[in-house]
Amino acid sequence: MSKEKIVLVGAGLSGSLLGILLVKRGYTVEIFERRPDMRKTDISAGRSINLALSNRGLRALKRIGMDDYIRKEVVPMKGRMIHLKDSTGNFQPYSARAENYINSVSRGGLNMALMTKAEEFPNLKIHFNTKCTNFSFANKTAEFENALNGVKFNISAETFIGTDGSASAIRDAMLNGGVKRFNFSQEYLDHGYKELRIPPTADGGFRINKDALHIWPRHDFMMIGLPNFDGSFTCTLFMGYQGEYGLDNLTTNDKVMEFFTEQFPDALPLMPTLTDDFFANPTGALATVRCFPWSVEGKALLLGDSAHAVVPFYGQGMNCSFEDCLELDDAIDEYAGNWEDIYTNYAIRRKPNTDAIAALAVENYLEMRSSVANETFVLKRLVEY
Questions:
Q1: 3-state helix, strand, coil in the chain (%, to 5)
Q2: For residue range 196-231, what is the model confidence (pLDDT) as tens digits?
Q3: How far is the C-alpha of 347 from the C-alpha of 364, rounded, in Å?
Q4: Tell me, which fold does domain 5-78+105-185+288-362 have in CATH?
């Protein structure tokens, strides 16, 4: 079993999962995470859009022995519940087969579980409050800064993997001279989002159907709600920044209440903390990131959102990143520890699939906010069903 040291930058979902896969192969793994330990500090700050866990994501969790655990922590969603403006609605099943559904899972809850699992291995260490500030491809050395005391230090390793999301420090190093002819694009939607909440009932039950992903489509914008294990729903309002009711102009409690009374009359009574949530939680941005190549020889690799961040409307961002981890794990077998061959062939195989997911995610926003409320679309789905 190899004891080479591998450094991961980022202890999010893909970083924690990949760390487990690598340490199970005998590698020594260190993960450096710029945020504090979310198991000790609440750092969600209104950016914890619930995730849809599909079979592709479950395959990855099965490989590290966490599939049975996570099945007990998710809420199955068997279709979409569409809420129209007149407070009527309809249920659109995902499949005629009862076993075909997706699962609502807490981003933070799953991340914390993966971190705890990772720390069961003596050859894996997670360093929190530690930001990557620079990377030298020539020396295979990364510079880090401790956020608590400002101390900077360098770390060397056999190879580095950037699992640090859409604002990746490793990718920045590639872009700023680390890679010749490095292609990079970042495309923002002109819509952002606000995280909101439907709390559970007094006895811990669900206020609306727990077996569905709820959508309030309003053509130019929408709200969605995903069930949580505790009986609550994490809701997310997606809409433009500009206009009378744009995110930038909903600046008072009265404006927010007027907007929700007009657009979401059936949801409003379910949201007693609406205005508190609206102004406490930040406005999030939505962007697609594409880049290539993903690696520099065998020295560093981009994986997950650092290589291909997608908007959340297809529900496959996490599943895609988890599948990255599986594909990389398979490539390690195939190319017998030669990191340059591993990274090059892994990226060639994965890039077309991640580009496709990115395109589908943007296209699905139109379907979710508008098409699902169209009678012709509903009839077509009934025929398919």
A1: 35, 30, 35
A2: 999 999 999 999 999 999 999 999 999 999 999 899
A3: 25
A4: FAD/NAD(P)-binding domain (3.50.50)
